[in-house]
Amino acid sequence: MFKRNTANPKIRKEVLKRDKSKCKTCGLFYDLRLICAKLNMDSEVTDEDKSEEYALFCGLCYAIHKIKQVPSTQLFLCISKIPQNEIIIKYVEYYKKYKKIPGVLKIDKKAKYLPLSTPEYAYLLERGVDIPEFKKYKIFFSDKFDFSFLDKKKRFSKSTYSDTESDEEIIEEEEDDYMESTIISYVDDISELPHYELSVNELEVFSIFKS
Ligand SMILES: [Zn+2]
After folding, report:
1. Are 108 and 82 in contact (CB under 8 A)?
2. Calpha distance 81→77 (Å, rounded)
3. Rounded to an integer, what is the distance from CA 209 to the centroid of its chain?
4. By the 8 A CB rule, do 77 and 40 touch?
């Protein structure tokens, strides 16, 4: 799965307190199961690390943070005017309410399918490609993505983080469970989405994948 760049327990504890158990990207509060990861995702985790180098991410935002390493069956790109953090919030709210992963059109009725995979997109970003069209590119989640970190069954009914020894043990244990179970759910067939018409600019940028 992911090559993790997560904090040691001491830093994790500091960051949880500092950020009040809220995901840096979507801003949602999670009582457990936040991932405390290095902001610079390519730098190694060392013993000299300071808590300032870390932030908290929910499972969805972490996947976007680590887009390059997430299997392309789990994420896909669409054209949407909805900001990425709002898309995340909609996924979380829908999943919590209906216990299934929403299809794209449940998140954005006007979304259009973009024929570019997330590894391809990550590759372009890594090479410093930046075209105005990228602002419309949003990441959506397929039914292969594991939303189980949102399930209540293994969570504890704590509303705030406290720093007793036992809590720390629980949190570590919770994090290990992350992404292991699978959920059967319904997702709209992507092929039914209207397709987005690529601009000349995009056709040119994407042509490197066609040789
Ligand atoms: Zn988040």
Report:
1. yes
2. 13
3. 25
4. no
pTM of the model: 0.79
CA of 54 to the centre of ligand 1 (A): 14
Mean pLDDT value across residues 171-192: 48
Bridge partners for 35 per DSSP: 57
Phi-psi region of 37 (alpha: psi -120 to 50; beta: other; left: phi over 0): beta
Does residue 113 register a pLDDT over 80?
A: yes
The domain limits of the chain are: 1-66+163-181, 71-143+185-211
What are 192's two structure tokens? 């039914």
pLDDT score recorded for residue 127 = 93
* Cα gap 116→135, rounded to integer Å: 14
Q: For residue 102, is pLDDT > 70?
A: yes
pLDDT in tens, 30-42: 877 899 999 987 7
The neighbour count for residue 28, using CB atoms within 10 Å, is: 17
pLDDT reading at 133 higher than 60: yes
CA 24 to chain centroid, in Å, comes to 11
How far is ligand 1, taken at its centre, from the CA of residue 165, in Å? Answer: 26
Query: 116 CA distance to ligand 1 centroid (A)?
Result: 23
Cα-to-centroid distance, 93 and ligand 1 (Å): 12
Q: How far is the CA of 76 from the centre of ligand 1 (A)?
A: 17
- Long-range pairs, 203-209, Cβ under 8 A, ≥24: 205/124, 205/129, 205/131, 206/115, 206/116, 206/120, 209/120
